[in-house]
Specification:
Elements lengths: L4 E2 L3 E3 L19 H8 L17 E5 L11 E5 L10 E2 L8 E3 L10 E3 L12 H26 L9 E4 L7 H11 L1 E2 L14 E6 L3 E6 L1
Antiparallel strand pairs: 1-5, 1-9, 2-8, 3-4, 4-5, 6-7, 10-11
Helix pairs in contact: 2-3
Length: about 220
């Protein structure tokens, strides 16, 4: 089984994001953003924050450890305190994950072990290359935030302040430790049993509710 790696870079800002003004995210009477979305159904540009995916920017990058020119990093963010999905490392080298049936009962949850990094695929330094790709993604994210701060592109009154991983993770070794501690799965794992065998099934997941897996 193979999966993609996800890690967060979280920042805070003393000012509120204008696009979220009036948003309570509960769809009740006081939720002005919901009212705006509900009552302007035919003009997308006037439907406000709830008519967007909530993401302010995205970057597609090729890491320094990529074996080809194929994009293997996808980094995106927005005005949310969500600890996952960014940066995103695709085309990972680790294929050591396993799914084992606990019994013959089809309703019993199988035992799933993704075997990340040191417990996964280590041939030819695959685990370290994947880790280095994610370290590079954090550095790219930090560079982008620094760019926003320097040129006052988003909220000009003050700077974004990084919370996670924060100043406690600066060297590659410290960033590597942080990644291993907070790593999340993309929940679109690829399962391979036999060559030329392709099936699709859905699995309940913690955050996305449903994820499609392919075998």
């Amino acid at each position: 089984m193979q999966d993609r790696y996800e890690i967060p870079v979280n920042t805070k800002h003393p000012d509120k994001f204008p696009i979220l003004d009036g948003c309570t995210f509960d769809m009740k009477a006081q939720d002005k953003c919901f009212d705006q979305w509900l009552n302007d159904p035919y003009v997308l540009a006037q439907r406000g924050a709830y008519a967007t995916d909530g993401l302010a920017a995205a970057m597609a990058q090729v890491s320094t450890t990529a074996p080809t020119d194929d994009i293997d990093l996808f980094i995106f963010g927005g005005p949310i305190n969500f600890r996952g999905y960014f940066p995103w490392s695709a085309h990972t080298r680790n294929k050591a994950g396993t799914v084992e049936l606990r019994s013959t009962d089809p309703l019993e949850q199988p035992e799933i072990n993704f075997n990340y990094f040191d417990t996964g695929t280590t041939e030819d330094g695959a685990n370290q290359k994947d880790l280095q790709s994610l370290i590079g993604a954090i550095k790219i994210s930090r560079g982008a935030l620094s760019h926003f701060n320097d040129f006052d592109l988003v909220l000009p009154t003050s700077n974004f302040i990084e919370q996670y991983p924060g100043p406690r993770a600066d060297t590659d070794e410290e960033l590597g430790t942080y990644i291993k501690q907070v790593l999340g799965a993309i929940m679109h794992a690829v399962l391979r049993q036999l060559e030329l065998t392709v099936t699709r099934w859905r699995c309940w997941t913690w955050s996305s509710r449903f994820a499609e897996w392919k075998a």
